[in-house]
Amino acid sequence: MDKIFVSIAAWEDSHLIDAMRKFINTSDHPNSIVFGLGLNYEVEPDFSEFKNNNIKIVRDKEIGDGFPGIIGIREAIRKLITDEKYFMGVDAHVDLEKGWDTKLKNDIDELTQNNEKIIISRQATAAIFGKKNYATAWSLRGDIIEFGLDGYVIEVDETYLKEKMVNNKYFKNYYVSCNFIFAKTKDIKNINFPSYHKFPFEEPEQSLAIYCHGYDVVSPIAEEICHYAGNDIKYMFDPDKGYNPKFWKLSGNDPTIKNNWKKIWVEDDDEMRLEVKKLMIFGENQYYCLDNKRTIRDFYKQIGQLDNYEKILYDGLSKQYMYAKGDHNGI
Question: What is the pTM for the complete model shown?
Answer without folding.
Answer: 0.91
